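Hey everyone, long-time lurker, first post.

I ran two proteins through the pipeline my lab uses and got sequence/structure pairs for each. Pasting them in order. The first:
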Amino acid sequence: MPVSPIAGSRLLTAVVAVALVVLTGVRADASDLKLWEPAESAAAVEEESTGDAVLELVDRQQAEIDQLLRRLEAVEARAAEAPDSRLRFGYDRGFFASSPDGIRLGETTAPFLLKLNSWMQLRHTVFESEGMTADQNDIEFERLRLVLSGHVYTPDLKFFTQIDGDSDQGELADWLDYYVLYDIGHDALGLDQNHLRIRAGKWKLPFNRTRAESGWKLQFADRSVASSFFDINRSLGASLLGQIMIDETPLAWEAAVFNGFNTQGFVPVRSGQLDRNLATSARCTIDLLGEWGTDGEPDLTQHENPAIRAGGGFAYSRVDAEGLRELESIRAVDSGAVLATILPPGVDAFNVFLYAADLNFKWRGLSVLSEAYFRRINQFSGGQVADLFDRGFLVQSGYFVCPNKLELVGRWSRIVGDSGTLGDRRQSADEVAGGVVWYIRGHFAKLTFDVTRVNGTPIRDPALNLLPGDDGILYRSQFQLWF
């Protein structure tokens, strides 16, 4: 049955309208899709008997079709320019939910991103004591982390929070980190990204390389004795950080003000745990040769060309008895005794200066990491005590005997100082360790086995499975999973 030209025009209009909705997902206004409605009825058209009238009608219909197609192109263009407000979910080294253009505040588009990560370290520890401390044989969650991170309102305003529930604290949840990081240089001053930022909250304070390295990117099951002794760990505070270019090489830096050394979890508000003296610290790093990368301590990327990174740090705090818990966090070489307990009666305050320097190398599966540490304690109040000086170092190396899969590692750390004798004589503590690491899926899934010989440890660090005065051999087997 033949179809009249008008019926064909209406059918084509409907088809194009449906195609517009299907292909663009945008429902056009009626004004966008309205076709010419002929004034003549079907009967009148049928009465047209001349070929000229039919051709005139076809021409008018073709003109209307061309107009509709132009409007369709305009609608498609508007749809392409419209913000994508769909909520997206997926996995990209962490589960995420994002809104590319979540909401609009006036004329400003405000993106949002939430990312979820988790990682754990299941460790079996055996310690064979050769001194006065007890043996150990147990299985524990050394780290049991849940991480939420992302940005709000703008990609220049990031947040990071990390909850820990390891066995050292009875597997109770602890807010290990929580901070915001604002790229004020990029957002407000028009600088390149990461050139000037502000951080506020609780986080790893800038000082030494080993603490700055994440616990899931280490070569051994944990950090060295020396790096833990000369450490300021976490606290609440604020910092400025950024980078400057030196001959096209970025120098990264951070300077912070915070409550005090190792004061994470301390109760504020005149509780007797914190004194009124804020502490300061700073750190900078520069890649002297090549690009260091982001694979942590081992050379997982198998650098084709040598890479060298250098860094340095400084920290200062005035500690007094007003914050008794903070005062008791300072330990002495080599017994690990609390310094405040061996000071003369009446001494209730002193200065602590810390310095660190590191030089590190990677090339073709070989990594060599070295750090030097220094601590000076002086200006004692309430009694006469000589200036105390402690120093230490760490030398650590790893080599992949099977590229990216099997690595042999070794290290030596040493601490020497006179803080344990109040300046009378020097004492020392050593750590010698070796191990093997099987990288199943890089750092995301790996097995670590290491053996450590200690001859007296001046620290109390459950993460290292060591207590003050430990003398003996430590065996650790650890499985790590990160996703």
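...and the second, right after it:
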Amino acid sequence: MKNIFTIFVALFVGATSFSQVKKKDTTETSSKIRVFTPSSSYKSKADNSYKWSVKTDLFSILTGEFPIIGEYRIGSKFSVEASAGLTYGYISNHDLNILNDDEDDNYVNSDNPEMGSAFRVAFKYFPSSDYDAIEGWYFGVQLMNKTTNRSYEKSSYEIDDNDTKVKTGASIIIGKQVFQDSNVVWDFYFGVGLASTKHTFYNYNYDYDTGIETINRNEETKSKPNILLGLRIGFGN
């Protein structure tokens, strides 16, 4: 009987010790920390998540257009861009006008720059697999409407009106947009399209028989190829 009791005590002590060791092992296993490592595709999206930019166009400023341009990403490869600005006609419409072939030597020169307006909207596609829109090479469509005004304030003719040129057109554009570490963005593009230009101007006519000189208001509209060139700088995020 004593031997049986001794055996039961030994088995109980052994079972208790095994249970403690097992519990300790389970606790140590559950205390390990799992580390999640993002995939390369996830990193790519996080590192190239530019969504918007605000810019101006240096080339446009040289021709008397002062735009504020905003661009916003509307998809992984698409963006929409809108521009609004003022124009200042410091260059004669007669010199810039694509209808010069139809104007005679009796053109009354508009001598005073006035303010006008310019609006543009573009839809862009960024095909590169290395970047999300709005970074890298792109192509798209741009629509535009630009009004340039000059007055006859200093002219010897009393003309209470403006020499006005309204240009409306659509173009296919291709360019590249690059972001720097400081969130500065550079955007260079080239475009080709078709534009309709309506030019309102004045000329004079002298009748040698009567000795009377008259002033005539003219409106001419023509469509011709339109070439675009842009160099933009701004910031984005």
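Reply from user beta_strand_b:
Welcome! Quick read of the second one: The beta strands are 52-57, 65-73, 78-88, 112-125, 136-151, 162-179, 184-207, 212-236. Residues 118 and 140 are 19 Å apart (CA to CA).
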